[in-house]
From TrEMBL:
<protein>
    <recommendedName>
        <fullName>N-acetyltransferase domain-containing protein</fullName>
    </recommendedName>
</protein>
<feature type="domain" description="N-acetyltransferase">
    <location>
        <begin position="3"/>
        <end position="160"/>
    </location>
</feature>
<dbReference type="InterPro" id="IPR016181">
    <property type="entry name" value="Acyl_CoA_acyltransferase"/>
</dbReference>
<dbReference type="InterPro" id="IPR000182">
    <property type="entry name" value="GNAT_dom"/>
</dbReference>
<dbReference type="GO" id="GO:0016747">
    <property type="term" value="F:acyltransferase activity, transferring groups other than amino-acyl groups"/>
</dbReference>
<dbReference type="Pfam" id="PF00583">
    <property type="entry name" value="Acetyltransf_1"/>
</dbReference>
């Protein structure tokens, strides 16, 4: 079966959020359990996702399996200063290493370019370093004991030329 990558709609947040919660809980071992609890109960709640989608402050790409439903996602900020930041990217364990994460990144690049971004950026945990490198993002640096006490590896990819008119467009 073919997997598709689509923008998450507000009405689909109740279907998406359990997948996000499961992936965050099982696929991001760098975070302490208290931090994951804080994320899921304070910052990344269903009403917050609905707000982001309604205000277009962020967008969510979802990978769908025709039979299973949502199997992966990417939470992405709208470009700021020409840079599109991916906050979270995850794929359910049974669907990893099948090109789904790569498809999410390809669609992120497409969407970011349409929104006027000239660069993609993501802060990765160590276990994702090879994945981002294979997807064409370059390691730009390391933040030691950064946000919420984890080391973050900063990856980026230039996808266009900076355009001041687009960078200041509201």
């Amino acid at each position: 079966m073919e997997n598709t990558i689509e923008l998450l709609k507000e009405a689909e947040v109740p279907l998406f959020w359990p997948i996000f919660s499961r992936v965050l809980t099982t696929q991001f071992p760098g975070y302490a359990p208290e931090v994951i609890h804080y994320f899921l109960n304070t910052i990344y709640t269903p009403p917050v996702y609905q707000y982001w989608i309604n205000t277009t402050a962020k967008f969510v790409l979802v990978a769908r399996d025709q039979q299973t439903g949502i199997i992966g996602f990417a939470l992405i900020d709208r470009p700021y200063g020409g840079v599109s930041l991916c906050r979270w990217l995850g794929v359910l364990p049974g669907y990893q290493r099948q090109g789904i994460g790569s498809k999410l990144i390809q669609e992120w690049e497409k969407q970011a370019g349409q929104q006027g971004a000239h660069k993609l950026e993501v802060a990765a945990q160590p276990q994702a370093n090879d994945f981002y490198a294979k997807c064409g993002l370059k390691l730009e640096g390391k933040r030691q004991l950064s946000y919420f006490g984890i080391d973050q590896y900063i990856y980026g990819k230039v996808i266009g030329q900076p355009d001041p008119k687009l960078m200041v467009k509201s």
